[in-house]
Amino acid sequence: MSQNENRNVVKAARVYLRVSTEEQDLARQEAIVAGARAAGFYVAAVYREKASGARPDRPELLRMVADLQPGEVVVAEKIDRISRLPLPEAELLVATIRGKGARLSVPGIVDLSDLVADSSGVARIVLEAVQDMLLRVALQTARDDYETRRERQREGIEIARRAGRYSGRKPDLAHHRRIVGLRDAGMSIAKTAELAGCSIAQVKRVTALHRAKAASASNRDVAPNDEASS
Fold it and tell me: Can you give the pLDDT at residue 138?
């Protein structure tokens, strides 16, 4: 293919935006979409997710991977937006993306794809090995950062508990309301978990808690009437 033909090829991108909790805002990452277009990409789709990067079952991530077409590029703010998974799982995710004929375009990771494509023999093998090594280091760094944050959180909780200042983790009320709303709308447990971006176990737990509170409130309302009629 000539250089002119290369310039005329439409580069398609799928943009993945992620934050860890419902309280966090994706607005800061929205600039990535404009940046991808400015870089000459046709943005085929944008996938917005509020879930931990340490979860392999993120609905929007799985949808994006399923949607990928050969030659497309996955664009994200940083590699930890794509994955904070343990290295073997992270490498499997990347292998799945590559298996669809797509590649990653993430700041902080040197992309040698064009050099690899133009090389052969030993040079190609070396470039591919370097690319894999750089990606592996980035994926492991993202996981190490996640584990360090978790350890500091555990240490902070333990210090607060010993000092009598720890009252437990506050429930994510907005997330709970979403789960309850989906269930009230007739969604199955499995579908609710998919749409709410959580586990089936959490859907069952939140639903049971909501029903227990509703039953308790109903009993309180009925009790005075019962006493008045006795």
Answer: 80
